[in-house]
Specification:
By secondary structure, this protein is mostly helical. About 55% of the residues lie in helices and about 0% in strands. It has three helices and no strands. The chain starts with a helix and ends in a 35-residue tail after the last helix.
Length: about 90
């Protein structure tokens, strides 16, 4: 019974963390005020730290010009057309 309860608790925790990750991308890193009242302090801390990490990743490096919040849903087609608008990205393999 203890193992079952532990598995249930870990699954619930993973579900809430996944929801926080999705919420970060949907809100561009701003936690809605009503959400702060339903989240624990640890979850708010996780959201803020995840936002810092995602922002640092999105703002630095050669891919910083991309809009990381655009096109969250993948295309339904198996093949897509890619246009390279920036030179110096290296070798492109198809």
């Amino acid at each position: 019974a203890i193992r079952r309860n532990k598995r249930c608790l870990l699954a619930y925790h993973a579900y809430r963390i996944d929801k926080l990750r999705v919420l970060r991308w949907e809100t561009s890193g701003t936690l809605p005020p009503p959400m702060k009242f339903v989240l624990s302090e640890a979850e708010v801390d996780f959201f803020n730290e995840y936002d810092k990490l995602a922002s640092r990743h999105a703002l630095g490096g050669p891919m910083s010009s991309l809009d990381w919040n655009a096109d969250q849903i993948p295309p339904e087609e198996n093949f897509i057309q890619v246009r390279v608008v920036q030179s110096g990205l290296g070798r492109i393999e198809t």
